[in-house]
């Protein structure tokens, strides 16, 4: 997957962000997106191939893998990154709308043109609400995904061995997860950075409300 457009999006949003927003953007880009692209994808690339069960019963390994990994960590993180950065796109669209409106008025009124938005990127009026709601949405998305990960993978950890007795397995079989320690380390890292991002979103929302 090509994540290059996310980098461009984050750079553009940085222009209209507060100091806390710039810290959040740096955290998302460096500690979440880059770690995901450089390391996490490779760590989970062999999760199905190297998921071994001590049986040769056809279909048993696939059924057990699907039971213990209903949704891959890597796909959940990809969806989380997409959803958490989309609200920033709404802020850019709102600023672009203001600029386009100013341009239309300039063309219509000519020399008598009076600016509605002296600074289209200044967080006033509707843009203030758009920015605030984007912060709430981003924090909510991260909290929801933290809950989903906790429900799917208890305590955010993967055991070294899981026992499976689902059909068509002939009996209780032991299945071994590939590189569980490495995966647990990356999972803990992503959980911690997600929590920090949530705190930054709440601090920035509080700052906006207090400043207003």
TrEMBL record:
GO biological process per UniProt: cell-cell signaling
Top-rank lineage group of the source organism: Eukaryota
Principal location listed in the UniProt entry: other
Domain Connexin cysteine-rich: residue ranges: 141-208
Keyword field contains Cell membrane: yes
Entry GO terms, CC: connexin complex
SMART domains in the record: CNX, Connexin_CCC
UniProt membrane topology term: Multi-pass membrane protein
GO molecular function terms attached to this record: gap junction channel activity
Location of the Connexin N-terminal domain: 42-75
Segments traversing the membrane: 20-39, 76-97, 128-150, 185-209
UniProtKB keywords: Cell junction, Cell membrane, Gap junction, Membrane, Transmembrane, Transmembrane helix
Compartment list: Cell junction, Gap junction; Cell membrane
UniProt cross-references to Pfam families, sorted A to Z: Connexin
UniProt-listed PROSITE patterns: CONNEXINS_1 (PS00407), CONNEXINS_2 (PS00408)
InterPro entries, sorted: Connexin, Connexin_CCC, Connexin_CS, Connexin_N, Connexin_N_sf
Family: Belongs to the connexin family.
Quaternary structure (record): A connexon is composed of a hexamer of connexins.
Its biological purpose: One gap junction consists of a cluster of closely packed pairs of transmembrane channels, the connexons, through which materials of low MW diffuse from one cell to a neighboring cell.
Protein known as: Gap junction protein
Protein source organism: Rhodinocichla rosea
Source taxonomy: Eukaryota, Metazoa, Chordata, Craniata, Vertebrata
Underlying gene: Gjb5
């Amino acid at each position: 997957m090509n994540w290059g457009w996310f980098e461009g999006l984050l750079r553009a949003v940085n222009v209209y962000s507060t100091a806390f927003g710039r810290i959040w953007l740096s955290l998302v880009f460096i500690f979440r997106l880059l770690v995901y692209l450089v390391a996490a994808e490779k760590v989970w690339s062999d999760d199905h191939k190297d998921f071994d069960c001590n049986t040769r019963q056809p279909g048993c390994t696939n059924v057990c893998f699907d039971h213990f990994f209903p949704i891959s960590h890597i796909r959940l993180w990809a969806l989380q990154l997409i959803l958490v950065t989309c609200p920033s796109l709404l802020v850019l669209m709102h600023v672009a709308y203001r600029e386009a409106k100013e341009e239309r008025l300039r063309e219509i009124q000519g020399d008598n043109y009076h600016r509605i938005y002296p600074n289209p990127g200044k967080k006033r009026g509707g843009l203030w609400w758009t920015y605030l709601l984007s912060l709430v949405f981003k924090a909510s998305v991260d909290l929801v995904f933290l809950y989903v990960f906790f429900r799917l993978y208890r305590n955010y950890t993967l055991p070294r061995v899981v026992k499976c007795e689902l059909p068509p397995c002939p009996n209780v079989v032991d299945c071994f997860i590939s590189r569980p320690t490495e995966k647990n380390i990356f999972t803990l890292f992503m959980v911690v950075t997600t929590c920090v991002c949530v705190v930054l979103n709440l601090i920035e929302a509080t700052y906006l409300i207090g400043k207003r």
